[in-house]
Amino acid sequence: xxxxxxxxxxxxxxxxxxxxxxxxxxxxxxxxxxxxxxxxxxxxxxxxxxxxxxxxxxxxxxxxxxxxxxxxxxxxxxxxxxxxxxxxxxxxxxxxxxx
Length: 99
Fold this sequence. Notes:
Layout: H1 8-17, H2 23-34, H3 40-65, H4 71-80, H5 84-98
Helix pairs in contact: 1-3, 2-3, 3-5, 4-5
């Protein structure tokens, strides 16, 4: 994890490992792991940012695997891989940037 003071990876990993945990519960666990107080609001914000970054990295990786570089081909590949639920917002951002 980059030393950004934002526990993005840890928050996402913890949520994946404990999907039923509340933000308060995740904040308690992260506070212990990081040795500093983390609020439930900070956990929610870290999860939002982590999901956005994860989606961005997935789209980058998939885009490098297709030859055309065409947006429609990228959309089709993401859908075929079953990644659309994770990447839809990032794909929309990319579409808007190309307009």
